[in-house]
Structures are given as structure tokens and as C-alpha cells.
């Protein structure tokens, strides 16, 4: 079982390595195709808020965005700690994200994300300002580090076994405070 999960993690790694949006359907096959799946990004703090994606369509959209705007993801597939209990498994591993594109290429995408933060009707004005400021400072920090810099991260995931195949149910990316 552990080998099957490590193989699935390698498939996930390969998808992030290719970053080919024309193969997005193939990339999504390791995911449990239910609306209760979720992917929690590095900027998430509140369920349903910024970078907390729920449902197959939302997860697909963020992965498409990652393929377009993110850099090279390298997971420690061999060193991943995998625990299995019946038809549920969880894993943790580390990795790096190397910036491959210039800041200017992603700037329109970043500005759109900041606009979404500021237009969030559910948050008070001071929270919006704090979130937008933090988001902007992270983007400026990325720009300062430059192309080629490798950002460390941790990936944790919960998997479920359905129809004799393991599928990702929940994935959480986290980045140490910089």
C-alpha cells in the first residue's frame, strides 16, 4: 500500500514538474473526484477564504493557475512519511519551489489576486488592508529573491482508497515564515 501511495505522490510531482495545462485532466486523476476535496494553499487562513479551495472544480482551477504562474516544484517523494490505516492514509514531506519566471510575467495575476482580497465583502476594512499588505509584501519578497531562488515548503495530504485506487482528498501546502 505504501508503495502505491508513493507512486501516486510521484505522479503528483510529475504533474507539477511538467506544468502542462493541456494535460490538466490527466493531472486531476490522482484526486478523489468528489466535491468534499480540498487544497489549502500557503496563504490560507480561513475556510472558504483566500487560497482555501474546496471542490473538484476549485482544486482544478488552482492547479491550472499553479501550472501557469508557479515555478518548479520538487517534492521529496522518497523521504515522504506515509501512514496507512485501512482505506485512509496521510503523508508529510518537504520540497522546494524554484522561481522560474520573472516577477513581471505574474504581476497581472498577482494584482488580480490582491483585487479579490480587497473586494471580499465578508471581511472588515482593516482585515482587508492587512491581508492585501501582507500579500503585497510576499510578492515583493519573491521579486527580491529573484529567478532561481528555491523556497522551502512542507506538503501534507490525506488520501482515501476508493475502487482499489488511492486518491488525494486533502492537500495542504505550507511555507516557513520568512
**In CATH terms, what is the fold-level topology of the largest domain?**
Nuclear Transport Factor 2, Chain: A
> How much is the radius of gyration in Å?
17 Å
Average pLDDT figure: 88
Strand content: 25-35%
Oligomer: single chain
Fraction of residues in helix: 40-55%
Number of domains: 2
Topology as H/E string? HHEEHEEEHHEE
| Poorly predicted runs of 5 or more residues | none
How far apart the termini lie comes to 36 Å
Largest sheet: 7 strands, mixed
CATH class of the largest domain: Alpha Beta
Write down how many β-strands occur, each being a DSSP E stretch of 2 or more residues.
Answer: 7
Shape by Cα distribution: globular
Q: How many DSSP helices?
A: 5
CATH architecture of the largest domain: Roll
Q: Given the helix and strand composition, which structural class is it?
A: alpha+beta
How would you summarize the topology of this molecule?
Blueprint: H1 2-18, H2 24-27, E1 38-40, E2 52-54, H3 56-69, E3 72-75, E4 81-85, E5 88-98, H4 103-118, H5 125-145, E6 150-162, E7 165-174
Parallel strand pairs: 1-7
Antiparallel strand pairs: 1-2, 3-5, 4-5, 5-6, 6-7
Helix pairs in contact: 4-5
Amino acid at each position: 500500500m505504501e508503495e502505491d501511495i508513493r507512486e501516486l505522490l510521484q505522479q503528483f510531482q510529475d504533474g507539477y514538474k511538467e506544468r502542462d495545462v493541456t494535460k490538466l485532466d490527466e493531472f486531476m486523476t490522482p484526486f478523489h473526484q468528489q466535491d468534499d476535496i480540498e487544497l489549502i494553499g500557503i496563504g490560507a487562513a480561513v475556510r472558504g477564504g483566500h487560497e482555501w479551495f474546496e471542490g473538484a472544480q476549485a482544486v482544478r482551477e488552482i492547479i491550472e493557475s499553479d501550472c501557469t504562474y508557479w515555478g518548479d516544484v520538487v517534492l521529496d517523494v522518497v523521504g515522504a512519511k506515509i501512514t496507512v490505516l485501512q482505506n485512509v492514509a496521510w503523508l508529510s514531506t518537504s520540497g522546494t519551489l524554484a522561481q522560474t519566471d520573472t516577477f513581471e510575467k505574474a504581476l497581472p495575476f498577482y494584482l488580480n489576486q490582491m483585487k479579490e482580497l480587497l473586494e471580499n465583502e465578508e471581511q472588515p476594512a482593516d482585515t482587508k488592508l492587512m491581508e492585501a499588505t501582507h500579500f503585497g509584501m510576499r510578492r515583493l519578497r519573491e521579486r527580491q529573491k529573484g529567478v532561481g531562488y528555491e523556497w522551502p515548503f512542507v506538503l501534507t495530504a490525506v488520501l482515501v482508497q476508493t475502487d482499489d485506487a488511492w486518491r488525494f482528498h486533502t492537500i495542504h501546502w505550507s511555507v516557513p515564515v520568512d
